[in-house]
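ingest -> fold -> write
write: protein_1
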Amino acid sequence: RKQDGRPLLPWERLRAASAFTRPAISLGSLYQGFSTNLFLKVPYMATMFGFHAFNKTLLDAISGGGDDDQGMTSKTREFVSAFLVGIEASLLLSPLELVRIQGQNRGKGGLLEASRCTLSEIGARGVMTTGMHACMQREAKYCVGQFALIGAISSAIADWAAAHRFDASPSPSAASASA
């Protein structure tokens, strides 16, 4: 290239190839599709913890609440409750997830617009049944893992607090020192 006077690197072609045109970003585009995620995750997480508390109370009442040889142990009740949460949460999650995904695939950003589009294409029965089995399997495993982890962490913290005689109230010597 140097012998015939051409530059070693084709600077003009490189500049043209790397020219980046910034798309126009509006504030509305940042929140496009946000309502479907908001209305999917908030009810899902709230119902998960509500169902878990309800299931544990129900299982405690059925089994007597103790850890005897004939009834369920607290670990078994925790496992069964978490498994049931996955099934119960799927009844709420699966239709909302289907609406969200179908809405995104068709470019419908809002919850109402995505719901109308999905209902018009597959109907109410299709919204409730499409993907329900797969969702139940996934959520049951997820909830068992999540609530088992929450239980293990809370037990470890309680054991640590008991071993260290941790008391959240201020000690009398600390209160008099700060005064």
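write: protein_2
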Amino acid sequence: KAADLMQFFSEGQTPSLDGFLLKQDIAVGEQINGDMLISPNDEQFFIESVDKNEVAFRVYVKVENQFLLDTLKAGDIVSLYAQQPDYQASRENREGLRFDELLKNLMILKVERFIQNDETPQDSIYKNYVGYISLKMPAEQLLSIFKLPQKRDLLVLPKEDKPIKDINSRGLSIRALRG
């Protein structure tokens, strides 16, 4: 049966089982064959991976963030961020965007890149976005996303183990002025 799995890898163009689901429980030491696996590209994948009180939420990826489609894969644990206007900064006559972490520890179900060809519909979704990332999240967490203002962008980033250090942009500006 191990030969069946090697054939599965060569046909499926996948180097590992990361992100795959098993159709049934297996015992320790039991061999896995291709018939036992559900690929992240399979339609059955979403049905089997989302529990009763969970949803698969799509985050559309803009062209400037297409690196996410190259970097992330099904099974990765990520955080969801919202980039939105900073109204406090606008009151102080300076431009600015807030970058807020909305949700943590979300699992990626699927990473899909849109393929552009002559048969691609000319919808705005294909003009403005290069793909999407489907995230598995509890249904009650959707409310925090829908409470956001319409002028916001959602961004999926890998889970950060250590706190992000802020850049001292004031110091950079002073150095730039000094030459």
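write: annotation protein_2
Helices lie at 2-12, 44-49, 67-71, 87-91, 124-128, 142-146, 169-178.
The two ends are 67 Å apart (CA to CA).
pipeline exit 0
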